[in-house]
# Entry
Amino acid sequence: MSKPTEAKSGFKSFPRNFWTVIVMEFFERGSYYGVMSVLSIYLIMSPGEGGLGFSKEGVGVIKSTITPLLYLLPILAGALADRFGYRRTLMMAFTVMSTGYFLTSLSTSYSLVFLSLILMAVGAGFFKPVISGTIARVTDESNSTLGFGIFYWSINLGAFIFPLILVPFLKGIGWNYIFIMAAVGTGSMLLLNLFVYKEPPRPASTKPLSEVLKGILMVLKDYRFVLMIVIYSGFWILYFQMFDTVLWYLKEYMDMTPVNNAVNRFLGLFTENPNWKFDTEHVTVINAGAIIALQLIVSNIVKKTPALPTMIVGIALGTLGMGILAISTYAWVFIAGLIVFSIGEMTAHPKFISYIGLIAPPDKKALYLGYSFLYGVIGSGIGGILGATLYVKFVDEMGRPGLLWFIFSMIGVATIIGLLLFNRYLKPKQ
# Structure
């Protein structure tokens, strides 16, 4: 009796469909983070440098539109995928996504770039729930934890490898080739969808769209839950700066020579005259690399700690990471800030999911967890425009980047205070 259980607990327990969607996730997330690791720089660079010359405020509007779509669309996309089939939904998602990336590589006007990136976001938004839905359907209690762990690693592996290896190479040819890479990376998954992916069994009953919308209204009527999401989204305002203001700061203020020298000395052990340089895409590499290296360690440390205090510690670390950027423009201080922030993120976010499960009504836990990612809608919706506005004011006009990071650190502090007050006065009784 023990043999089937043992066999099912390992990698061999997963069917082909599982590994198919893991490959899809790796290429889709790699393409996405490859683009996002440099997008905000490409959009503001002058045409003479290979960029498009948009204003930072204009870029903030773009980011505050496309990123919320990525978090909002899966609510509707999941219900539509259940009704019309996963393969059809993936076909649409990869087609629209790839087209969006490709059109961005050709576009130079603000409106066309904006529309092209919206196409990309729509495709990515429909892609998200199909992958997690497939994994949920091909795993069970014996292997779902491992399955979703592999899923999480595939995301970060894509976010690590693509910006580290492909983006620097493609920049040397032309910045638009980064978008072509993403178009090929996502478009090629159409072949995997056509010839390898199999439609999983549909649920006995699928939710009509009206029921999904009714669920949204039900959740939004719970002011405690909405307030919790609003408070937590403060931390994600900080997180989304890693793809905008932090990149601008790196490009315009930082001298990364000490890091370059250290890395090149190490590479010199294996090759002659290495010429590696730390650039904007490596911010994403550090974040993803830290999670790959440390997530299991951090998760093991906090696995038995209460959810809310652990969230607060994580957000405090993230806030400290942002504050470290205000201390100095020295290269290693900058790197330390990014790593501390990443540790804060990997500490806080898993416990946030756990906390939502604790405060949700017992008969509505799945519903609440489904809408808990509204933090990303709010955090990215505010973060893009706010970050660009503050950067122009305090860095471009006043030349005081330290003040910018101090303000963001205060948003982190406000988030911590908000969580403490929420837990003291509004948390539902367990």
About this structure: The two ends are 38 Å apart (CA to CA). The chain has two domains: 17-196, 207-430. The domain at 17-196 is CATH 1.20.1250.20 (Growth Hormone; Chain: A;). The chain has a mean pLDDT of 90.
